[in-house]
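Hello,

Our lab assistant flagged a job as stuck in the queue for most of the afternoon. It eventually completed. Since we weren't sure the result was trustworthy after the delay, we are filing this so someone can double-check. Below is the sequence as submitted and the structure that was eventually returned. Let us know if re-running is recommended.
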Amino acid sequence: MKYAITAATGRFGQLVVNQLLDKVPFRDIVIIARNLEKAHQLFPPLFRHPNGGLQRCY
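-- returned structure --
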């Protein structure tokens, strides 16, 4: 099962992601954030884009 976390760089979002990381593999977590640089700093193992880079989605 995949889990999509919106506002993942906010206080609550960070708590949710960290709790999920204790329970499910990181490949099952999808981070949704406006600030990709901050998200990359907070959750580096979660950033694996098929093209090898980050992708901004609107």
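-- support follow-up --
The delay was a queue issue, not a problem with the job. The result is valid. The helical segments are 11-23, 36-42. Residues 50-58 have pLDDT under 50 and may be disordered.
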